[in-house]
Amino acid sequence: MKLNVNGVEHALESGALTPLLHVLREELGVTSPKAGCQSGGCGACTVLVDGEPRRSCLTPLGAVDGAEVTTIEGIGDAHDLHPVQEAFHTLHAAQCGFCTPGMIVATVALLKRLPQPGRREIERALSGHICRCTGYVKIVEAVEAAAGGSR
Amino acid sequence: MAKQRGRGMAAIEYPTGMNQGGDPSQCWVKLKPDGRVDVLSGTVDLGQGAKTIQTQIVAEVLGVPTDWVTFDNSNTDTSPLCTGSFASRATFMGGNAARIAAERARERVLDIASRLLEVDAADLDIDEGEVFVKGATEKRVGVPDVAAAATWQFGELITGTGAYLKPYANVDPETGRTDRNPHAGISYGACVADVEVDDETGAVAVTKLIQVYDVGRAINPMFVEGQLQGGGIMGLSFGLLESSYPYYPSVEHRGSEFGSYLSASIEGLPEVETVLLENPDVDGPFGAKGVGEMASNGIGPAIVAAIHDAIGIWVTESPITPERVLRALDEKAGGGGEPRRDGKRYVFDESLSVNALATGISFEVNV
């Protein structure tokens, strides 16, 4: 089985039924997708599979063989922040940070699909992502700011 | 049958940290030979911003830029003790320890600088990383030069330790009075909730939350706002959604996984308006109080009051589920308790409840 993770090709040893989340975290050491509820309910494990947000905890490796996977490590780093990361950082849209990688990759996919989303579209795109710290207020503000900045 | 609107308010007061001892915080500040500042502390930053806030406190006291200061809480074994990030105490208690440690380090900076400038330390001040003579600002020396002189010229280390523990209040057994205030850093707040209640389905939607908090001093206004917004939506979840026993009345059917303990999602959020009032506290660092925990406490009561305003019922249990709203409406209508259960019989299976009884959880079921 093969995956392209953040631009790097990997030949994998994990079995076809191993959740993508564990392949990333355990076999490849990519730890930004978080093992939250591990039943598809919290959004903390979200990664982009061929550009689309997917719950990596519910995605067996065999279903995404050969796909391109993007995690937040492939979006930007501390020295070269993606505009969405920049907005989350500047506007304090992350507190403990557990939901943040999933929130940010989902936002990146949203803005690619819909560069100027309305409030409703932002809520729809992030409705499956639970955040216990921020009350979502600053997350919505950050997504709006990132969209505004990309105009 | 229609959607009814209502507005409710709740007020709250809340102390900071524990009382009558038990939760000290300690801190150690030291200068590197180049003037950069290390703050060693055990305060855990769980997202509220304790690292940034204590960095700001130390930089402000020492008169140096914040980016010269490194807050290191990476090793709680070797760092000074902090009893934890709970009871809204990280900024108040940990921040006080950091303030005191920085004040003592500042005295040492001024002591070394007074030797270099040959001016009495009492006549010196520090701003933007430079020590200068008050009233004669051209006579100055940079903090990096002071730290270098301490290291290489005088053979000394510029350092300061600080600790904070609320003083114990002795209670007079005769009168019950204390010889000092056992509390410190009491914060006050008020929450207003606007709701829309569907009196046919029992569904409650919060359309607007206004939160006003006396935060003492907002050392980092954006972070305080983050605490209050987060606490506000958590309070909304406490009020409307979160239940340890979502499938009552049988406790065996308690939520077994993340998804059965509902919390608010980003969809359908109320408009949230947050107002910070600054009413500095005599004991807090720069007047700061702790408001992290209280932020979630007033919302539920405000929602209950708003529901009463909308449809004239008091819901006395949380979370305020549609079922509880409808039961209260039925009771109000004088339908003799619970008319919706007429003709139905609920069978209580005792064998299923062995676990519950064994764990000491008691509950009542009306057959």
Q: Quick gist of this model?
A:
The complex is a heterodimer of chains A (151) and B (367). Chain A has 151 residues and is of the alpha+beta class.
Helices and strands in order:
The complex is a heterodimer of chains A (151) and B (367).
Chain A (H helix, E strand, L loop, with lengths): L1 E4 L2 E4 L8 H8 L18 E4 L2 E4 L12 E3 L12 H8 L9 H14 L5 H8 L10 H13 L2
Parallel strand pairs in A: 1-5
Antiparallel strand pairs in A: 1-2, 3-4, 3-5
Helix pairs in contact in A: 2-5
Chain B lengths: L2 E12 L10 E7 L5 E5 L8 H13 L6 E4 L17 H28 L6 E4 L2 E4 L2 E7 H11 L5 E6 L22 E12 L5 E11 L6 H20 L30 E7 L21 H13 L10 H11 L21 H5 L9
Parallel strand pairs in B: 3-4, 10-11
Antiparallel strand pairs in B: 1-9, 2-3, 2-8, 5-6, 6-7, 9-10
The CATH superfamily of the largest domain in chain B appears as Aldehyde oxidase/xanthine dehydrogenase, molybdopterin binding domain
* Largest interface chains and counts: A-B, 29 and 25 residues
What multimeric state do the chains show?
A: heterodimer
Taken in chain order, the helices and strands of chain A follow as EEHEEEHHHH
Element pattern of chain B in H and E: EEEHEHEEEHEEEHEHHH
End-to-end separation of chain B in angstroms reads 31 Å
Protein described:
The complex is a heterodimer of chains A (151) and B (367). Chain A is of the alpha+beta class and 151 residues long. Helix content of chain A is 34%, strand content 13%. Chain A folds into two domains: 2-74, Roll (Ubiquitin-like (UB roll)); 83-149, Orthogonal Bundle (DNA polymerase, domain 1), CATH 1.10.150.120. Chain A has five helices and five strands. In chain A, a hairpin with a 2-residue loop joins strand 1 and strand 2 (8-11). In chain A, helix 2 (83-90) crosses helix 5 (137-149). In chain A, 48% of the residues are buried. With 367 residues, chain B is α+β, with helices and mostly antiparallel strands. Chain B is built from seven helices and eleven strands. Chain B has two domains: 3-14 and 184-352, 2-Layer Sandwich (Aldehyde Oxidoreductase, domain 4), CATH 3.30.365.10; 25-164, Aldehyde Oxidoreductase, domain 4, CATH 3.30.365.10. In chain B, 28% of the residues lie in helices and 22% in strands. Chain B has helices at 50-62, 90-117, 143-153, 221-240, 299-311, 322-332, 354-358; strands at residues 3-14, 25-31, 37-41, 69-72, 124-127, 130-133, 136-142, 159-164, 187-198, 204-214, 271-277. The A-B interface holds A 36-37, 39, 41-42, 91-92, 94-97, 122-124, 126-140 and B 46-49, 222-223, 225-226, 229-234, 257-259, 263-269, 272.
